[in-house]
Specification:
The complex is a heterodimer.
Chain A: H1 3-12, H2 17-29, E1 30-37, H3 43-51, E2 68-74, E3 77-83, H4 95-105, E4 111-117, H5 121-134, E5 138-143, H6 145-150, E6 154-155, H7 159-164, E7 168-170, H8 179-189, H9 204-220, H10 227-235, H11 239-244, H12 258-276, E8 277-278, H13 285-294, H14 300-343, H15 348-366, H16 369-385, H17 387-401, H18 409-414, H19 419-424, H20 432-441, H21 451-461, H22 466-497, H23 522-541, H24 543-556, E9 557-558, E10 561-562, H25 570-582, H26 590-598, H27 604-613, H28 622-635, H29 639-651, H30 656-666, H31 669-697
Parallel strand pairs in A: 1-3, 1-4, 4-5, 5-7
Antiparallel strand pairs in A: 2-3, 6-8, 9-10
Helix pairs in contact in A: 5-12, 9-10, 14-15, 14-16, 14-22, 15-23, 15-24, 15-27, 16-23, 20-22, 21-22, 21-28, 21-29, 23-24, 24-27, 25-26, 26-27, 29-31, 30-31
Chain B: H1 2-26, H2 45-52
Classes of the chains: A alpha/beta, B mainly alpha.
């Protein structure tokens, strides 16, 4: 069977007897509940509240890009909850809209819980009306009722369900109120479908066409469950539904009726709002006042740069203050382990593996935990407050100038945490070219794994300017990323000149919801920080552990077997091979070559490998820094070399995982290969320029 | 005896880590061992793969 046939079958046999029987059997045991709603309406917060999961939530739209499942036991019944990406309508344009629509239309969902931001009811009801048209059981959860009350607004909770024909339950996902009643309503509503799925009545002409299409659909498949939804979508000329329609409807659908259908829905929403909403107030005054400053046409960008500067300043300075405690623990643990191994009369190789390989490699990374925790604490605060969405808006002008939509700035911001989810976040971009360009420049944002490298090298060579040197990496990365995107757009424009007007790319306009500012929720922030700290610890115990052992092995063994002198090891051979290429960048030392290669496993390994290479356990302590500074100084590695190395680390491939996820997202080996070559070449050219130009002055 | 046990534990753990990496690569579950990703918990890549197939 071809995929088209399969889609056509799905289109009309969505309730075939076999599936229905299977579902009936399944329903006896469990209930599948789909959480759907507009972006940033609090779906994931509600999902977490029910399932006890700790999925990422943030106060900006587009956090969830894939559906996530969880289970809930309610009155001895197992309910499967599915959190879907936020969407504004059931029209499939972007990936998240497609994911949500496909799932909602499938037989997998028994009850739809439409989570609406009650403080923005007008906007949220559009999706609600489309969901009602599907004809499945829908329960409307009015979230953020606390905000409605705070603003002195009131919603008539008797009239609203009357007008919509579905149960309406007020909840507050953040304060965990109304959750039991919502689940109670879902359980009782599972068998009942909306009283009527023609809540919105269209013009006579459209209703007549809907009737004709429904007749034809029923002729083709008498069991079709939701013909009205498909009929409306056909009249809207929905490309996916039209493409999968197994018969010709051109005699009925003579043109697109999308505008009329949308307008009628909004007219109905207006009627609903008029009747149910008392003291209507669109946005809080406080949000408007703050936005007047933070999204100011001129001040917006300097304020953003100032805030991010402060975030990284705190990461480096405050984190360094706490780090001493960790260094003390590491030192004590190292001494204790050495004593134990001595008492056990352990051989030189085992002792070297544990002390020089594992403790030095893994321990070094653990001392940077305070820096990482503070970075994520600050980012969590910005996300939860609602500022991150503003950044997209503030940067939209610049992003448009370089040929990207402001939405592309979200993955770039996420890139300051970890490049892997940042690349996955590019799925929210509709345009393939936008995705490619954003994936190209996102790795240039300094991820948290690069922090240890910056802290180590800047602390060692730049004294009181250490923080400034580290901060410059963020600015250089951001500016370079923007310039590269601009250059890529220019190249595309030239290529477009050779194409027909239809093939030319165009910049998508930014359509983003600016959420209300909120007091950051302590619980959400703690979960966010804990998740990242845990991931860091897990990485230290797995990837970095393995990399440290492998590194210790190649640095402790050579052609003659176990070697005391690392310069005789396999590692030295590999490092020496790279020396000629790294020489022009001031990095022509075999040890640096080895640490840069090992950094491909994870950027933190650059630092742990330096600890192993130079035999310094507590590399980040004052004594460790001084010892390494001295060793590097003897080699002829100075401040300029260190800055050149920081530049190389900033630009070259963040890690193998990033490359793999890029391949997976782009589904094109040539683009991934190009990206790898581009990153390595760009890193090399940039560090050569820094070193060569710097050499003229120093 | 104790030093042999320590050596074996390290060897087994390293073996396990290598096995996991290889398994992930074979499953094309690149990102990855997930341990390096802050979104590991929120990522349902595995279950989605099942859906896609």
């Amino acid at each position: 069977m071809t995929s088209t046939n399969s889609n056509q079958d799905k289109f009309l046999n969505n309730r075939n007897p076999n599936t229905a029987m299977k579902n009936k059997m399944r329903k006896a045991e469990e209930l599948n509940i789909g959480f759907i709603g507009n972006p940033n309406s609090g779906k994931t917060t509600l999902f977490n509240a029910y399932t006890g999961a700790q999925l990422k939530v943030a106060n900006w739209p587009g956090v969830t890009v894939e559906k996530k499942e969880g289970a809930l036991r309610y009155h001895n019944h197992v309910h499967k909850l599915v959190d879907l990406p936020g969407i504004y309508s059931l029209t499939s344009y972007s990936i998240e809209e497609k994911v949500s629509r496909q799932y909602i239309l499938s037989d997998d969902v028994d009850v739809i819980v439409d989570i609406a931001d009650a403080s923005n009811l007008e906007r949220n009801l559009y999706l609600t009306l489309q969901l009602i048209e599907i004809g499945k059981p829908v329960v409307l959860a009015l979230n953020m009722m606390d905000i409605v009350k705070e603003r002195g607004m009131e919603i008539d909770l008797h009239r609203l369900p009357e007008m919509l024909g579905i149960p309406v339950i007020p909840v507050s996902a953040r304060k965990k109120t109304g959750l039991d009643i919502l689940m109670h309503a879902v359980s009782h509503h599972k068998a009942s479908e909306p009283k009527s799925n023609d809540v919105v009545v269209y013009s006579e002409l459209i209703e007549d066409k809907i009737t004709k299409i429904i007749e034809r659909l029923r002729e083709y498949n008498p069991d079709i469950h939701n013909p009205r939804f498909y009929a409306i979508k056909l009249l809207e000329n929905d490309s996916e539904i039209m493409g999968n329609c197994p018969f010709d409807v051109s005699d009925i659908v003579d043109r697109s009726y999308e505008t009329e259908i949308i307008n009628r829905k909004y007219d109905f929403i207006e009627e609903v709002i008029e009747e149910v909403l008392v003291n209507r107030q669109e946005r809080s005054e406080l949000t408007d006042k703050i936005d007047n400053v933070l999204t100011h046409r001129i001040l917006g960008i300097p304020i953003f740069l100032g805030i991010m500067g402060l975030v990284f300043f705190l990461t480096f300075t405050l984190g360094d203050g706490i780090k001493g405690i960790f260094e003390g623990w590491l030192e004590s643990f190292s001494v204790w382990t050495e004593d134990v191994l001595l008492a056990l009369n352990a051989g030189a190789i085992l002792k070297s593996l544990i002390i020089d390989g594992i403790i030095t490699g893994v321990g070094t990374i653990l001392t940077f935990l305070p820096n990482i925790a503070i970075l994520f604490l600050a980012l969590a605060f910005l996300e939860d407050s609602g500022y991150m969405a503003r950044v997209t808006y503030v940067m939209n002008g610049i992003m448009n100038k370089i040929g990207l939509t402001g939405r592309a700035f979200i993955p770039m911001l996420l890139g300051f945490g970890c490049t892997v989810p940042a690349i996955m976040a590019t799925r929210t971009l509709e345009n393939v070219r936008d995705r490619r360009k954003t994936i190209l420049i996102t790795p240039f944002m300094s991820c948290s794994a690069k922090i240890p490298v910056y802290v180590l090298l800047s602390g060692m060579f730049f004294g009181k300017f250490a923080t400034l040197a580290a901060l410059s990496m963020y600015i250089i990365g951001l500016v370079s990323g923007l310039l590269i995107a601009f250059a890529a757009t220019k190249i595309e424009d030239k290529a477009d000149q050779l194409k027909s007007p239809d093939e030319k790319s165009e910049v998508n306009q930014l359509l983003i919801e600016l959420p209300e500012y909120k007091n950051p929720n302590a619980y959400s922030i703690l979960i966010y920080v804990w998740e990242n700290v845990k991931a860091y610890l897990s990485k230290a115990g797995t990837t970095i552990f393995l990399a440290s052992v492998v590194l210790w092995f190649i640095l402790s063994f050579g052609t003659t077997g176990y070697v005391e002198d690392m310069s005789q090891s396999f590692g030295a051979v590999i490092g020496h091979f790279l020396v000629p290429a790294l020489e022009p960048a001031g990095l022509g030392f075999w040890q640096i070559g080895v640490s840069l290669i090992s950094g491909l496993a994870a950027k933190e390994v650059v630092v742990s490998s330096m600890g192993i290479l130079f035999g310094i356990t507590s590399i980040d302590s004052a004594i460790g820094l001084s010892a390494m500074h001295q060793t590097l100084g003897v080699m002829g590695f100075g401040a300029l070399n260190a800055y050149s190395m920081m530049i190389f680390v900033l630009f070259y491939t963040p890690c193998v995982a990033t490359l793999a996820v890029t391949a997976q997202e782009l589904k094109a080996a040539k683009w991934t290969t190009f990206l790898l070559i581009f990153q390595l070449t760009f890193a090399w050219i940039a560090s050569v320029l820094v070193y060569q130009i710097g050499s003229l002055f120093i | 005896m104790a030093k042999i046990v320590i050596g074996v534990i390290i060897a087994v753990y390293v073996g396990y880590l290598i096995y996991r990496q290889v398994k992930n690569i074979k499953a094309r579950n690149f990102c990855g061992s997930c341990c390096g990703c802050p979104s590991a918990k929120s990522c349902s890549r595995k279950s989605n793969k099942g859906d896609e197939s």
